[in-house]
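RETRY 2/3 - previous attempt timed out on the joint model. Re-submitting the same 522-residue input unchanged.
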Amino acid sequence: METLFFLIITLVAIVSALLVVTCKNPINSALALVMTFFCLATYYVMLDAPFMAAVQVMVYAGAIMVLIVFTIMLLNIRVDATKRHSHKVVLGSIIGFFTLVNTAFIIMRSRVAMPNGPLTGEMIRQQGHTELIGREMFTTFLLPFEITSILLLVAIIGAVILAKKKL
Amino acid sequence: MGIEILGLPMMYYIAMVAKVLVAFVFVLLTVAYATYAERKIIGHMQVRLGPMRTGWHGLLQPIADGVKLFFKEEIIPSQASTFAYLLAPLVALIPAFITFAVIPFGGVIEVAGYKIPLQIASYFDTAAGRVFDINVGVLYILAMSSLGVYGIVLAGWASNSKYSLLGGLRASAQMISYELSAGLAIVSVFMLSGTLSLNEIVAQQSAYNGFNWFAFKQPLAAIMFFICSLAEINRTPFDLPEAETELVSGFCTEYSSMKYAMFFMAEYANMVTVCALTTTLFLGGWNGPMAIAIPLLGPVYFVAKVYFLMFVCMWIRATLPRYRYDQLMHLGWKVLLPLSLLNIVATGIIGYFIN
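RETRY 2/3 succeeded.
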């Protein structure tokens, strides 16, 4: 059952990932990217990480992609989409080829790691994924967490200063 | 349980399909008759009669409207971006419906020895003796509601019309800014409940006198969440995206026939969802007198509370004038957001001293 489901989702993920790069219209490729993110969220659910799945949809599909769609719409680059940029094909294919080799190398040389340590699927289901992440974040990883929040605050203030003409 | 398919009893599949169908039909019927109820209620509040001609006191009006919309001509503007234009109504409608997957609308009922929890995305574990549901239920709802914005943005952009674009931009700016305050208002509920599972949140509010409701423990959060939700689903007094006097019909100006109907349905389905969520989080969900002893009473209480909140939505629409755009943004960012942050801090401090 789960394998079948996985195959369906993977098919959708691959097709939409291909559409991201092949669509002529940038809005359509942005939508295909949303679909890909959605498939990733489904993988997280299947990996017993529901919190990650929800955050994936909320942050990537819900916030970042909305921003990208907005930008595309307001720039109105539909006219530009029909132009062909053949000089980038060579560079793109070289990068693509090396990425493929790299990925193949990693897949061939590594083996599937089973969950080890105290974090098993059963334990996550018992305690709740969100609870586990929250506990770790506010105990073991408190300092990185706080530093990240300060970083975000700085970014917000920076954005306000950049956007505001008169302070 | 007799026959098993792919490791799960047959009854599991039957129960699942039945629950999905019941919830879906319930939302669809509610959506259809909410349009009628809205016209009737606002009519009576304005000392009019509302629809009277079709059927007894206009009871067949939604069906007549549906038939009319179904047979209207389908128009796709020649300059529209076809794929996005066709996709937009679906993207608007689907998140509104699939949110119902996690909302518990009743307790556990027993059919032929098989225990069925009345919540779509959950099952009763006989070994553990309790209901397991998706334990990020509320986050799932927030995630789905953040997808709803795509339908409106796409509709506004793909129609290639200035009214649509302005409506779409307004709607998305509004939805994004109010989503934040709505999310933060719910955080204070989590702080009390200590869980994200909606089933668990409802269970914590079960008391006969109703004073365990989070609406009494978190009155500010309840009110703020309801206001933010109204803004998020573009209801009056926050219906600027479709302000008739300025923008014709906002993002759905260029839509006709069933596609327009889908936007319309999405709006009302969102209203049902928001009311159901407010009921679940703040008004005790399906709890009520005797609801645990007689499991079939649960859905009755749930529906009654949802309908009451929907009535409140219509009441607000009949009472309040529309906000101006700068007032809307002022309310969202300078009033509701600080208030919800303050509410979280206050909840934290009080919670610390009580425990």
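The mean pLDDT of chain A is 83. Closing ticket.
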